[in-house]
Amino acid sequence: MIKKFIGKRVVRNEDPRLLTGQAQFVDDVEIPGLLHAAFLRSDYAHARLLSVDVSAARRRPGVVAVFTAEDMGDDWQPGPPLVSPPPTAKDVIFHSRRQVPLVKDKVHHAGEAIAVVIAESRYIAEDAVEDILVELEPLEAVVDLEKALEANSVLVHDDLESNLAAQLFQKKGDYETARKEADLVIKRRIVIERGAAAAMENRGIVAHWDAKSQHLTIWDTTQAPIPIRNGTAARLGLSEHQVRVIAPFIGGGFGPKIMMFYAEEMVIPWAAKKLNRPVKWIEDRRENFYATTQERGQVHDVEIALSRDGHILGLKDNFLHDTGAYDPYGLTIPLNTQSHDMGGYDIKNYSSEFKVVFTNKTIVTPVRGAGRPQGIFVIERMLDIAARELGMDPIEIRKRNLIPPDAFPYEHKIIDQAFAPLILDSGNYKAVVEKALEMIGYDKFVKEEQPRLRKEGKYVGIAIAPFIETTGVGPYEGARVTVEASGKINVATGIGTQGQGHFTSFAQIVAEQLGVEVNDVRIVTGDTTEFHWGTGTFASRGAVVAGNAVHAASRIVRQKVLKLASKVLEAPEGELELEDGRVRVADIPQRSISLGELALLANPLRGAVEPGTEPGLESTAYFGPQYGATAFGTHAMILEVDPETMMIKIRRYVTVEDCGTVLNPLILEGQIHGGVSMGLGNAYYEKLHFDETGQLLNASFADYLVVSATEMPRIEVGHLETRSTLNELGAKGVGEAGAIPVPALFAQAIENAFHDRKLEILEMPLSPNRLFELLNEEKSR
Amino acid sequence: MKIEGEYTFDGTREDVWKLVRDPEVLATCLPGTQSLRLVGENEYEGEIKVRIGPIAGSFSGRLLVANEAPPVSCTLTVAGTGKVGFLKGSGDIVLSEQVERKTLMRYTGDAQIGGKVASVGQRLFDTVSKGMVKQGLDKLNEILKARSA
What we know:
- With 781 residues, chain A is α+β, with helices and mostly antiparallel strands.
- Among the domains of chain A are: 15-22 and 475-623, Aldehyde oxidase/xanthine dehydrogenase, molybdopterin binding domain (Aldehyde Oxidoreductase, domain 4), CATH 3.30.365; 392-473 and 627-780, Aldehyde Oxidoreductase, domain 4, CATH 3.30.365.
- In chain A, the strands form 7 sheets. Chain A has a 7-stranded mixed beta sheet, with helices on both faces. Chain A has a 7-stranded mixed beta sheet with strand order 4-8-16-15-14-9-30, with helices on both faces.
- Chain B has 149 residues and is α+β, with helices and mostly antiparallel strands.
């Protein structure tokens, strides 16, 4: 069947509203009697809370209430674990320590909330925060990952024996034997540091308890409205049907907004109910740097064993992972790192142990990429070093090791983030790499252009980085598709949306089945009243999991439409077609009926219906994949470095992505562009600097450099489509893809630009300063 | 953060020492000092106003003088907190006599800041603190010169 809507470059349905300021965000919510909250946060990263005196704050005119942990009584409970704990197996250690609504006895990271002021305005609330007298006894802070595990280290959590939060070992084959047989073994230490997600919109929450209807409505910048609804109901002793969570338009999620039950999400609804007044809290940018989760800090000790001809015989990667003050997200990130350590390469022997470490820093949960960029950085760095040592072409060493197309489904024989076997379902990896090489003109550049530019004294480097991305994981999502009497289609799904274009891509899926225009399909996301079941938008799964649920529901509705139309039009179903919002008899197009008329007929006001039938043209369906689909891509870049200032100019940037069936190339390219911009930040600009006392030293956009339009290259995007075998649409996710290979690509390009120097980049993020230092270190060696 | 430097005073070591150990003089010399009171042997309490980049606020805290070896050296320790964060520091000063009734002060210390001042003002802290030290010592030298004139 030729697709009419899927795969088309349809402009986004939601954009007119967004671009003209007509879209609702959390801070747009205004309710009569609305109060405003401000939090008192700890200046210290690690301190014992001796006393809090809120009496002066309570006396300030306009202040309605001030709450501390004490005031919450039995309602003071830590947040729930977000993911299931790992299976209790030998060699697995996991200590669950979760964030709390307000600090009770000890501060675990700078910026942790100690008290909340609720007042008639945010101004008054902020002033009253300054009225609070808090007595803190500063403690030595745990900051460095290795020192944190030393026997004499102070403890982040006093009830644990050490700062070890978790430990897990995985192996495939037998690395030690592979090592013995190897012609070359390379060992390196790789350090990756923290960055922020830095979404354009910070977090925010409005809670409104209506005592008369006994109903709580919450507007929340969450990526997971349904779990927030369920958890809030449980925390407050309400039925799930008494709580409605709305995640309206959100200015970027990028992972931290899937973290559930941030302190503010626990405190604000509780306070609104207690005070019987609506309460709003909007995070400011400085709070965001402390109170919103971050990621990427890891230290790797890596070893790769190779044969003389460049085949990887084995990989060993023992690493430390910084989880910050708590570990609500379990082992997701370090497991993702292990899942990406071997990239898209056929590696028979693998050994990896990770240790998750508590530190007195902001909590770590997934940020776009979620452990994947670290794994890809590790393997790609080791391959670059290996190619140099073996005197091989960096492209050739990669091609030699890529998983061949006939090896799918390919079992990596380790477990993934869901504790299920890591299986790469489908792919054509070499073709993607070839396409990237062709698009960037690799051979011509290396043979002709680069030597010429180098002769002119220019420092230009080229790089190619392939990567995998595990996407579209379960458990499930659902959707309800309804044909309305107007002939328009209404679709409700449980996931939230933060800019992914769901209003368009889901509408395309529906339009394909029901033969209507894309803008005749109204999509609702992120409102728990509209759809009761679901988990959320994360792990590049929206289009795959919710998309396939929308597809399944649309197909059932199509069948219902055909069945009813066949009766009305007195023609067999096989002779009917759905086009332009009507069902027609294919050979006699004048015999037709509109979807709207059919919807009315399916929901009669009088008369009898056949027993066993359901009213309306509606269906609810769910989709849960057997396991996650794995996408593949390759980025290529030509970079020029100014040897004086170390500022860079990206001359060409090419991405080739194989994420299975492309639903909408326009939206896909947008995802890639956004991902690359985050990846560039992770590579050369965005680093959170903590000092030895756990103080964040660059908590503003003046010091923390987010990639802006001037740093962004023009990106050329290519596609290949290898359908996933795990779902009917054949889709794989792409939400995080853009960010994943960029640090690896960047390191390769810089080394290539300084090909005459013995520069080895083993850390991320870099910066112009840091590159200057590395080159000086190399000179003095 | 390390604070280190030297300053040459136009006066004898004894005169410089007397000034350094006089809270009233110190209060007028340290830029932004609102008050400085002796509360115990070698212990002062006071308040200081500081502006670092976009952050301005006052800190109240204590100043302790230890390891005193008049008129040569001592250790100063400060700890203050305020609405915009906290600061902590300790430093050694050593005075040595120079020719022509001049005195050289060497100071080495460590300072730490936290909270809002650290997160937003860190980049400027180095410059601001150096400026404050220089300004303070210049003022001290002026008083010294006025007294000995």
